Amino acid sequence: MAEITIVGAGFAGLTAIRLLRRKLPQAEITLIAPQPTFLYYPSLIWIPTGLRTAEDLLIPLAPFLQRMRVNFHQARAVGLKEGGRVVLTTAGDVANDVLIIASGGRGLRALPGIQHTWAICDGLDAAVAIRDRLNSLAGGTLAFGFAGNPKEPPAVRGGPVFEVLFGIDSYLRRAGRRAQFDLVFFNPMREPGNRLGAKAVTRLLMEMEKRGIRTHLGHRIQGFEAGVVKTEGGEIAADLIVFVPGMTGPDWAEASGLPLSPGGFIQSDLTCQVPGFPGVFVAGDAGSYAGAPDWLPKQGHTADLQAKAAVENAIAFLEGKPGGATFKAELVCIVDTLNSGVMVYRTLERSFVLPNPLWHVAKRAFEWRYLQHYRG
């Protein structure tokens, strides 16, 4: 009986479990994660405006894991040995015949004073802090920005910042409070979000202009102080700073012995196989995928596609066959505005940008459908 270990209870890890159980009903599957919960990150954007609460998005996984007959090992991965056949964790070693690493990435914390900002992608605590700070203000300046990892161009998360920016603007207008606030978007690039495509950048900047949101673009971010964004083009005084830094790989990657990209991610390619480590695969934000286009985002949809390729190639490895399955390079993103949205779609062959009020409804419907996999 094959013993398969998965590290991480995010999009890629849980999708891998569902696919493996369908294809290998007798396999022994072990999930390593700090908590038996799943956080639906895409909807964190709605916590600051009250559309969602923490309880809506943090899903207990015990019923799902029982249904899938998965052994849960509550711990953090800290390293590997024996070429990846053993995972070292804070609660003991876990052996495997195949390993799928899906432990996600993390934000770079290198900029001075970054503790004076909140990153919506950091999780529930950050999203709740943004909500509470916003609701405590009678007026003032709200600053929103993001940056990348200069050593890993795709390791950037701009979409959620655009969504929080537009969502808060809509929220304040709905409450009749918008006139008391100055909203500013800052970014070191002159064309922020260009991985969404040129049409999307134009659309986003037009939307900011229409909503009266100031922009501060093309100036390198130097750091932060309490209530201040510092850039080479001047300072922005702000009562709330929402800032998502660039990403790097999981905190235990350096101790894993696996090959890492210049940006700190576990190296792989479109097959999700880690080179030089047979039977070790990576999916989701933890990996750097040679051959993927530089616009491919770090997002849940991409993680799901990578998990599918990793599972197919993991099964081939167990059967002693070469694994050649690759994941599709596809960007699917609804930039939500709380009452409307813009669909951005991009592949190697085509791309389009389509605004429509119904995209907000579609995003909420997709959340419900996706979470049905994991709710009791």
Fold and architecture overview:
By secondary structure, the chain is of the alpha/beta class. It has two domains: 3-105 and 249-328, FAD/NAD(P)-binding domain; 109-242, FAD/NAD(P)-binding domain, CATH 3.50.50. 26% of the residues lie in helices and 29% in strands. The chain contains eight helices and 24 strands. Strands 5-2-1-9-20 form a five-stranded parallel beta sheet. A four-stranded parallel beta sheet has the order 13-12-11-17, covered by helices on one side. Strand 11 (140-146), helix 5 and strand 12 (181-187) form a beta-alpha-beta unit.
How would you briefly describe this protein structure?
With 376 residues, the protein is of the alpha/beta class. It has helices spanning 11-23, 54-57, 62-67, 124-136, 159-174, 198-211, 300-318, 358-371, and strands at residues 3-7, 28-33, 37-39, 58-60, 70-74, 77-81, 86-89, 92-95, 98-101, 106-107, 140-146, 181-187, 214-217, 221-225, 228-231, 234-237, 240-244, 247-248, 266-269, 280-282, 287-290, 330-336, 341-347, 351-355. Helix 1 (11-23) runs parallel beside helix 7.
